[in-house]
């Protein structure tokens, strides 16, 4: 097979979210497979500096709307200088610049790819026209079905589940850093949770802490001011710990006994697969992409977001039955092997080749 020249377009300043990790890890894996990978990034950002450290070729783009002229120009300039096979965009604002750059430079052999990282339906002109001209990778069946319902009939839709760097979460010797940071005893029961959909998930956390006086909760991610105030005003504020933005999520999971992720509107949920790879039982919402990752009662439980009693029962079962918790965690670690970066990149690489008819 010929080696491909690929431009990954990632208009994000940091590498803390699932979409950014997806795009960066895909770029790494494609380069590891021998392809020529260039990144389109915003200069002077965390993402840009990280890519430079790994010696990626970079072209500059800037933030802006879907028709940002500079981004169209920068990608068109790249196309005129390089025989590019694939232009792959990862955010909604970056869908149009590669397609317009392709048309402006008459790069008829170049193929356009986008990964749909959100569950919301496409709107306006894009839903009627764009997706017939781009190959869309949907990160879950939920996203695929939404796109199928709201895109033009001949849109090019594909389902490929994301992958994670399994080694990071399965390595021995990872420290339980957040138990150490907050002086939580190794025998105390800790639930790890995320900042997403906090207004809803905090209600569940509060009820858990009401029922279980010996549980503590650690929360990853950047909380808003009113969300921090919610914790500070809670009767359980002494048992809720804000971890902030975390660079080493393996240490976060290693600090916990259970992962709670009641995000009901998630496109996929990389953090669920990460927690599973770390060997944690998981409790997640029964809807959205995260609900597709495991079967109920195999690695944990899937509960309707409004069923607070269901969350309390699931926590009680896992906490009070060590043999069950061990089985769920073991199955979780085994199931997470299905979500490797290598598998994801190989499936995307095949789509690239198929689109080029190589």
- Output the helix-strand order: EHEHEHEHEHEHEHHEHEHEHEHEEHHH
What is the count of β-strands?
13
**Total number of distinct structural domains:** 2
Please name the CATH architecture of the largest domain: 3-Layer(aba) Sandwich
Structural class: alpha/beta
Report strand order across the widest sheet.
Answer: 3-2-1-4-5-6-7
Helix content: 40-55%
CATH superfamily of the largest domain: Glycogen Phosphorylase B
**Quaternary organisation:** single chain
From the N-terminal CA to the C-terminal CA, the straight-line distance is 7 Å
Q: Could you say what the CATH topology of the largest domain is called?
A: Rossmann fold
**Silhouette:** elongated
